[in-house]
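Researcher: Here's the sequence for the chain we discussed earlier.
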Amino acid sequence: AALHLPLLPGSAPRPVLKQGQPLDRDTPARAKHQRRVAGSPEQEASVELAVWLEPSRSAQLVEIENLLANDNQDLIGDFSKPHLLPTVEGTDPSLKYISPGTLAAVLTGHFSSSIESTIVVDCRSPYEFEGGHVKGAVNLPLQRDVEEFLLEQPIVPLDASKRVIIIFHCEFSIERGPKMCKFLRERDRCCHEYPQ
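Model: Thanks. This is the structure I predict for it:
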């Protein structure tokens, strides 16, 4: 069986509307439409005036709806660029996973034109790590280890055109690896205004 590895940065799942699919009933555009239909003529005029007075806000809503209408699940957590590595389905839908073959490709330099450095975090216990591990991996079995290693002195690329990627795994990447990945994302979002 293939070992699936969670990949950070990832993004929390969000509803993605396919083209032609109706908007949710509580989106701003739908709510305005419902108020216009259901309201009195005075309310209708005030809603029309508000839209007319705030064209940039209306444009922002249209832009947001357009982004949601496109299938952007291949974008990284801050929506600034697509995932660099091919992803596969994993046990936690809020995380992105890679295959063992993709990890091997990363470690043998197949993505070196886009990746400045790769941090493979082995979340298993020290005795498991000592029994065998991915070459170059760091053993961070405890949450405080992850905070100390990855948050106190964040590793940033020297070349802005390249990326630093972090890959978490454990024995089968079902429990400890995904849990640690989510912990890091949570702690990072507590320290920084999302999506920074």
